[in-house]
Amino acid sequence: MPTTQRGLTAERVSWGIDGQLILDDVGVLAPAGAVTGLLGPNGSGKSTLLRVLAGVQQAGRQAASGPGPTTTFDGADLRALPRRERARVLALVEQDAGTDLPLTVLDAVLLGRIPHRSLLAGDSDADRAAAHTALAAAGAQELADREVGTLSGGERQRVHMARALAQRPRLILLDEPTNHLDIAAQLHAMRVLRDLAADGVTVVAALHDLNLAASTCDHLVLLDGGRVVAAGPVGEVLVPAVLEPVYGVRVDVLTHPRTGRPVLSFDRG
Amino acid sequence: MSPAIRRSRLPTRGTSPSRPWLALPLAALVLVVSIGVAVTIGPADLTLSEVGRSVATHLGVGGALGLEPLSALRDGMVWQLRMPRILTAAAVGAGLAVCGAVMQSLTRNPLADPYLLGLSSGASLGAVLVLLAGVPLLLPVAAFVGAVGALALALSLAGALGTITPTRTVLAGLAISQLCAAAVSFVIFWSAKGDAFREVLSWLMGSVASATWTSVAVAGGAVLVLGTLLALTGSVLDAFTFGDTAAAALGVPVNRARWILLIGVALLTGALVSQSGSIGFVGLILPHAVRLFTGARHRLLLPLSALAGGSFLVWADTLARTVFEPRELPVGIVTAAIGAPVFAFLLWRGNHR
């Protein structure tokens, strides 16, 4: 694999807890300017992988011998970057992050500016402008004055995306950004990701919905039991021979009449 | 049906009141006026101008301003009796409010405060033990050790119960707090001659009645140094708003930041409690009240909580010494009377989310 390639390259990532391997020698290739979907059944290690890639969970050295894990982005070793510098390159959108505190949407988005300014400084006009740009890009401009606690699930997800965008990341990792959202909100979220990719950002999103992945992703990585079982373009991963053993269901792949992308249909095996 | 993505429109201003920073000088003014007025309240009908004259004289600028000194009796009343007590109350209130705000954010627990999590009782225990051993110089140190010990016990007990939830943390804190309080009572009853009841009360309910200029120096110094340092950590605390992972993703060294800040809180609590005993609820209610005005961002919340906490405790103490004049209440009774209903409300609101 060429290491000078633009985008995210992770190799030999392992992580375990209590002697149990959650991730076993995982490799991920996510090109810049594309949306890479991270698929897999519940407990396959998608969230853990995102957290390890984001550097918020240390990659354990479970492999006893051989070279350790590497995570490079645009040729730079992500794990060697100082935290704050890393937070200017990479943003993570967690699942279900919430707060009990009374916080306006604008203030929540401004949190994304923390890595960009001195810890003693307040919000500058540039920070506020960046926050508003991020809100607009996430389609949440009109929510700016609302309180985070009063938002619907879809609105809150847009705010979390805006907070990540305020970091001005070149790599964005999202953990099931469409979870608990209605279909319009799901499509909206994926549209935002497509726009980001069009701007050259490297997007990696863990997804549950295979059809959503089929309709929006460029590349897919399929995890099962902490291992990568398939990776590549959508048309190569979303095929019955790959999916059926992983999910234990029967899969039929149709073709979308307008987009030409795969549409999946499932039966109990 | 997906809403169109709008990319163009640019910044309208945010929500916060147009000039929130004006709140700081205003709150500082309220605190200074509160202190001045509180000194005049009580027997002997002192006036504000007498307070001003006494302060000017003692600061050595009375002559230059052409002010006449007060009579020795009235001057002693202002400068030796009331001023140290009221300044100590202001410092303790300010410090406890900052401690509460920092703890609530770090533990993401709206019920956190030094009193409820047992830090204050732990500090009291440390202080009482040192006084018993006859080394009053170690007072703030022992109180700090007590506070850290109680915090560590409360957090590990909460952790042993399972996932650390706000309610579990408070329950664990209450258990530790009761244990330390019982130990304080035991130690005092075992050793004290004379007015043990009053002494137990002043440690457990809190009191600034016997404050001296030394108390002002310890509590005030701790607030100026530690309180200022804590108040400068606004951005770090902001980063914790959506939890540890979010903070880490924003480039904050989560564990190191948490421990440094919690130890700072324990140090400050220790210094304050060593002078005032454990005064409850100030750290709980002030940050919540101030958030109603500032929102959850810390850069304004922390200094404003400090100033408001100072004024709050000055008035609570004034109530404590005047309501049933000539009898005095421990100031903790007043703060509990105001704080316990607020605590109940927060619990109720937490369950209705």
UniProtKB/TrEMBL annotation, chain A:
Name recorded for this polypeptide: Iron complex transport system ATP-binding protein
Presence of keyword Nucleotide-binding: yes
Keyword ATP-binding in record: yes
Residue ranges constituting the ABC transporter domain according to the UniProt record: 8-250
Pfam hit, one: ABC_tran
Domain of life: Bacteria
Cross-referenced SUPFAM superfamilies: P-loop containing nucleoside triphosphate hydrolases
Keywords: ATP-binding, Nucleotide-binding
GO terms for MF: ATP binding
PANTHER family named among the record's database cross-references: ABC TRANSPORTER ATP-BINDING PROTEIN, HEMIN IMPORT ATP-BINDING PROTEIN HMUV
InterPro entries: AAA+_ATPase, ABC_transporter-like_ATP-bd, P-loop_NTPase
Matches recorded under SMART domains: AAA
Organism of derivation: Promicromonospora iranensis
